[in-house]
Amino acid sequence: MSVVPAPAVEVPRHAALEALADGFCMADADYRVTYWNAAAERLFGVARDDAAGRVLWDVLPGAADPRVRERIARVAEQGTVLQLTVLNDRELFVRHLSVHVSALDGGVALHVRDATAEQRVADQYDQLLESIRDGFIAVDREWKIVYVNRSAEVLVSLRRDRAVGVELWEIFPAEPAYLGEAIRATMRDREPRHLDALYPVGRVFRGRCFDVNIHPLPDGGVSMLFEDVTERIAREVELARLAAEAEEASRAKSRFFAAVSHELRTPLNAIVGYTHLLATHTYGDVPAGAARASERASVCAEHLARLVDDVLLLTTLEIDRLPVFRSRVELSAFLPGMLPHLLQQLEAKCLAFALEVPDELPALETDPERLRQIVTALLGNAIKFTSRGGVRLHARATDEGRWMEVAVADTGPGVPEGDRERVFAPFEQLGEESRTDSLNRGTGLGLSIARQLARRLGGDIAVRDPVREGAEPESGTNGTGAGAEFVLRLPLG
Fold it and tell me: How far is the C-alpha of 213 from the C-alpha of 211, rounded, in Å?
């Protein structure tokens, strides 16, 4: 029995369809080709005349697969998009075709677009998603998982070959509830969301902590990016624990100084008192050497008492618990009243002293005891480091009456510009490093405490070069040789 070949069919040509860059073909109810445009010839490698009248499955690459035929029949009814990967054996390259199948009266129409370039970009994105350390999961609009990267397999113990095609909620944890709510909200309103440090409940998550970024996808689905922050959170918790321990240690240190300060002061005051009685022959005549030794012991005890007070005060300042009691202070009456014991030190070193406080200065609203401590520290520092010349204390209102300046200028060796911040650091002193006589040099706490007190009162202390009037400055190897001026600035009002 001979086979009768199909009669030759002349495929018509339509100008608009021939002008398309995409392939277009039609088939009748028996899926025999009735139209085949020039772009279809190029995409499928089949000439128009060869395709005419033939069954679609014979000329459409990949359509010989029964599953493809079923899909084409199904999408013809639904009008959806069918993706095919086509290998052109003659030209030895792979083409990715996007095929849209739609139903016609008595047949189907296929609109075919070359999606090779788009697929290449998609492959690049796939490679990128596979290379990142964060887990990536994507679902479509029907909540079916469509993509799981390699990191997600590791982080959430989710095998992609078993997850793809499965509904998300079948494997996703119910807790914490706000994670599922955030994913559903992004699916609904298409707004991205970020969740910090959450612990999904479920065996696959293995008690790990994640930051989760949720983003809408162009096809209507959503993507979830899981960043494993378990180690970071553990470090933050550890740092918080160490910070709490350090804070508690600081409080314990402060409590210790507060507790022992009275116990230290009591015997020191007794030593000062008894050595003074010995030096003044209250208990009878003592040898001259013993009197001098008593005086020296008294000076040492007073120095140690000041050191105890300074360390205690510095510790109190560090924890910001120093009480401040503000009242009205008239500098024209306040400053002269605090000078007697300092004038004795000036006279002992043969230093000149000048006090310049205009009577018309406005009053300060500040803590008088703290102000006394600050000015005493500045004057004591000036006297200590000035061996000839003098010290000047003056006050004035500045910046249109908004600030009060109380300045102490000396004729000592000065402070180099590069050291004008360092002198305010605790235990920092300028001078010869090899000199360890703290009784004469001090402890290096006075200026540090003075600045912190000034800031506690809302002001500050700075160092500048003084304006000289008459007194010859002292030269020194560790300073500028022009003296120094420490300026206390406090707010008025």
Answer: 7
Q: Where are the alpha helices (DSSP H) in 190-287?
A: 230-279
Distance separating alpha carbons of residues 311 and 257, to the nearest angstrom: 8
Q: Determine contact, residues 455/434, Cβ cutoff 8 Å.
A: no
Q: Are residues 411 and 295 in the same domain?
A: no
**Residues spanned by the domain of 85:** 15-114
What's the average model confidence in pLDDT over 341-360? 86
Q: Give the chain's domain count.
A: 4
216 and 300 fall within a common domain: no
Judge residue 172's burial from the number of C-beta atoms within 10 Å of its C-beta, 0-12 exposed, 13-18 middle, 19 or more buried.
Answer: buried
Close Cβ partners of 326 (under 8 Å, ≥ 6 residues apart): 365, 366, 367
Kindly report which listed range (32-46, 136-150, 430-444, 478-492) carries the lowest average pLDDT score: 430-444
pLDDT: is 68 or 51 the higher one?
A: 51
Look up the pTM and report it.
0.44
What CA–CA distance (Å, rounded) separates 337 from 339? Answer: 6
* CATH number (domain holding residue 51): 3.30.450.20
Q: What is the distance between the alpha carbons of residues 322 and 318, in angstroms, rounded to a whole number?
A: 9
Same domain for 106 and 144, yes or no, is: no
Of 425, 435, 390, 396, the closest CA to residue 409 belongs to 390
Long-range contacts, stretch 87-91, CB < 8 angstroms, 24+ apart: 87/61, 88/45, 88/61, 90/45, 91/45
Q: How far apart are the first and last CA of the chain?
A: 120
Q: What does the pLDDT average to over 374-403?
A: 88
Token reading at 133? 């350390």
446-456 and 368-384 helices, crossing angle to 10°: 150
Where residue 490 falls among pLDDT bands split at 50, 70, 90?
very high
Q: Are residues 206 and 256 in the same domain?
A: no
Amino acid at 48: R
Neighbours of 155 (CB within 10 A): 23
Q: In whole angstroms, what is the distance from residue 145 CA to residue 142 CA?
A: 9
278 shares a domain with 419: no
What CA–CA distance (Å, rounded) separates 176 from 197?
11
Mean pLDDT on 370-392: 89
**Closest C-alpha to 271, from 244, 230, 303:** 303
Q: What mean pLDDT comes out for the span 379-408?
A: 88
Question: What's the CA gap between 11 and 218, in Å, rounded?
Answer: 39
Q: What's the sign of the alpha-carbon dihedral 427, 432, 436, 442?
A: negative
What is the percent of the chain where pLDDT is above 90? Answer: 12
